[in-house]
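INFO  loader      accepted 1 record
INFO  loader      residues=337
INFO  predictor   begin
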Amino acid sequence: MSSFVTFIIGENPPTRLDKALARDVPEAAALSRTRLARLIVEGAVSLGGSVMTDPKARVAAGDEIVVTVPDPIASHIGPEDIALDIVHEDDALIVVNKPAGMVVHPAPGTPSGTLVNALMAHCGDALSGVGGVARPGIVHRIDKDTSGLLVVAKSDAAHQGLAAQFAAHTAARRYLALCYGIPDAGDPRLMGTRGVSAETGGIRITTALTRHRTDRQRQAVVFQGGRHAITHLRVLERFGGALALVECRLETGRTHQIRVHMSHTGHALVGDPVYGGRRKLARGVVSEAAHAGVEGFARQALHAATLGFVHPVSAAEMLFEVAMPADMADLLTQLRA
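INFO  predictor   done
INFO  writer      dumping tokens
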């Protein structure tokens, strides 16, 4: 069964139907610009009683709009009974602590066993029609082999509200990472690296990122074109002058951003199979046990430790923090010993 959203176009509207609808549709309807554009083409929008299928159709102040919103269709993604580490859950969203090794969303190479499959099973009928499909709304992602916090929307309204915060870079994201070398603002080589500058309490990395020219699975630093990317870096702990535990705060959130930026600075992450090159740790700078732990670390040593945002429905300030997973924590224990 469908529902109906009726409203009047306000004063001085955009001349195009799709833009006028995006501006004036009631917020409670939780219809995104993309969803509205699709509904227009599908013949679900009428103006003054006439069905409109052209997004460029002209509108005027005072026009009555009726949007027919069909019930959400079933997702093609199947639910799977996979355990979740749930940090917070309410009617609008769910915050999970994703383990390393879990893919966020099904893809041709990973059709099952993902976070979305697990969420489909966990949420059941509690999921609303995010984008017209009964499924969780993935607002942001973390890499398969990165552990830590992720927020997922359970409704269109929550999805729009969260997506707007991530797009505006107001969501707080703090990562912990173990890198080679010591990123020091007093290092002339590091400060001479393009895009790297000192800031109060640490280092700022400002570049653009785009797909690598020859390897489409990788990202590359560029300074013309690409997508703007900023990472704030601070050293928390040093190990033998050869390794550092660092805090990375994302101002933007691009694919592989921290991994690419750390590699760009010459301080690639321990265990990173894509951006770490063939970096090896010299013997004697840490204990033999720690050396073996570093050389044998099976993933990039990166953990999404803190996540903060404004709740998209209640407007409450939300802040979550989770401890490092056992593999990173054990490695740090060996290094400290």
